[in-house]
Amino acid sequence: MAESERFDTLLKENRIFLPTKSFRAQANFNDVHIYEKAAEHPEEYWAEQAKHLSWEHPFSKILEWDAPHAKWFADGTLNVAYNTVDRHLENGRKNKAAIIWEGEPGDSKVFTYDMLAREVNKAAHMLVELGVKKGDRVTIYLSMIPELPIAMLACAKLGAIHTVVFGGFSSASLKDRIIDADSKILITADAGWRRGGLIPLKQNADQAVDGTEIEKVVVVQRIGEAANVTMTEGRDIYWHELMESMPTTPFAPEPMNAEDTLFILYTSGTTGKPKGIVHSSAGYLVGANTSMRSVFDMKDDDIFWCTADIGWITGHTYIVYGPLSAGATVVMYEGAPDWPDRHRFWRIIEKYGVSIFYTAPTSIRTFMKWGHEIPMAHDLSTLRLMGTVGEPINPEAWMWYHQYVGREKCPIVDTWWQTETGCAMIAPLPGLVATKPGSATKAVPGISVDVVDQDGQSVAPGQGGYLVITKPWPSMLRTVWGDDERFQKTYFGQLRGIYLPGDGAHLDEEKYIWILGRIDDVINVSGHRIGTMEVESALVDHPAVAEAAVIGRAHEVKGQAITAFVTVKEGIETSTDLIAELKQHVVKKIGAMARPEEILFAAELPKTRSAKIMRRLLRDIAEGRALGDTTTLADPSVVESLKLQYQDKE
Ligand code: WT7
């Protein structure tokens, strides 16, 4: 297998980076016994961490575990917006910068905690005025502008459940999510900036809300006239017009039960229908807050920049809830890394003195392609810690990041986690754990993971298998919105009470974990999770298509790229125009991140005699490998012709 080869070369290199004495001395977590202590008494460990939050009513119970349903701190109450904003007005951080926002065109805004609190109060009053009540769902479809975290925090303040839909999703995807969550309010913007062009958010929203229960659309004016929007009387209202008339009087934070839902965030699974991942209030915040202090070693004078979009879990946890609950200063950037030129990210680090930088391997590989001269042209001396997330990082990219961005003095935390886990699960604590480029190292304190074989038995060091999480943790997903059965089956269907993330992993001789990638029908394109079934459904939705099979193939920059094999209906002519049309159709149905890299027409798809599509063979074809076992194939000539066609393409 290609993966085990990759792994062998890694191990031969055997590079290890030890925490420096000086880093360790200043680290928040610098007692190595924390690992054993937390492993012996995980519940006590989490109860201890939970004390970093401000509770309205303290909890007396820590965990109730009726597998696979967990309740953490169940009799406690708190408010998440109080914890992320208001409490800092009383603890000396009132006039500290909470969010430093940089717009793509070069405009910028700073919100102190006090200013942020005013905006959140007004927005909460506004939502109430619009009829939003505790427990209602509010869909938010925005690009990276300050109104996005403000809207999320306003929901949290009054106890409404937000569901943020990434601005790159199509109107069809937005519509599915609005319907699934049963939202009556949508918050969007006239349009968003991207590489100097406009993302037509309001136009997409107009198409999406048709046929849903949406009663009000609140529109942030980010662009103005150029966005050319039509406002529907009685339904659409401008954010700024409503906000203007709102009182700045404090909005009393709604006391929420620890287990009340804070938000729903949709993610891809192995079926065509995305799952609404449900997160709790207290447990989620405990996880987010703890990892800020442990994995990111956050201090009061740090400037923390996570480059993810808030539309994904990384942005929820490491732009909004984690850092703000810890009283951090975060940088939030609206646009692309190459706008107006490829220096933008490094200029932002220089401009604001970013000290902790968190980005994705796919971005690092893009920067590598652009050349190290670009980051080297900047003073990045304020950086002291860097992170990666979203996919396995190849050691070359790790070393490049270490050398040209971190200038060989910043520890790198490779953080493995998922939408479902809420916060980083496998990652080094930078003051305590030696790192190996390409390995996320080991579980953070309080988290129990293992690598097991098909029967659920732990594998020996030096072996590979399935990654599992063996004990409940505070920030775990609570269910799938509206489909608890799917929650139970997907994540706990194999082994009782053991969470199955869907990733393969290798355990090395020192029990370091090396994540190998997904073991299910999920593709990871540039750190974005896309279900093969979703893309297949989008293709089959096109009138010319009879059948489609979609696979992820290795890609130098994106990690994986989407290859689609398509059979057309009787009488349809295949052409390059049709390829372009089908790609566009997928973009329309899902969003640009799901656009297939290549589409190949097949007279027939390779199937077993029981008519199951053999994706493994398609993957072999797309990655130019010798075909694996073809004995179960119903018609072997099918793959030969596909193989020839694939080679011709290049
Ligand atoms: C999947 C989760 C929350 C992170 C953003 C993506 C892959 C994530 C790593 C890493 C290797 C990683 C896994 C996981 N993944 N981080 N550090 N090393 N793989 O969240 O969209 O829920 O995707 O991303 O395959 O299952 P997500």
Verbal overview:
Helices cover 32% and strands 22% of the residues. A hairpin with a 2-residue loop joins strand 9 and strand 10. By secondary structure, the protein is an alpha/beta fold. Strands 5-4-17-16-18-19-20 form a seven-stranded mixed beta sheet, with helices on both faces. A five-stranded parallel beta sheet has the order 7-6-8-11-12, with helices on both faces. Among the domains are: 106-252, 3-Layer(aba) Sandwich (Rossmann fold), CATH 3.40.50; 522-649, GMP Synthetase, Chain A, domain 3, CATH 3.30.300.30. Helix 3 (34-40) packs across helix 4 (42-50), helix 11 crosses helix 12 (313-325) and helix 20 (615-622) packs parallel to helix 21. The chain contains 21 helices and 30 strands. The chain is globular. The structure holds 5'-O-[(S)-butoxy(hydroxy)phosphoryl]adenosine (WT7). 5'-O-[(S)-butoxy(hydroxy)phosphoryl]adenosine is lined by residues 267, 313-314, 389-392, 414-419, 440, 501-503, 515, 517-518, 524, 527, 529.
Concise summary:
The protein has 650 residues and is of the alpha/beta class.
Observed structural traits:
650 residues, alpha/beta, Rossmann fold, GMP Synthetase, Chain A, domain 3, seven-stranded mixed beta sheet, five-stranded parallel beta sheet, 32% helix, binds 5'-O-[(S)-butoxy(hydroxy)phosphoryl]adenosine
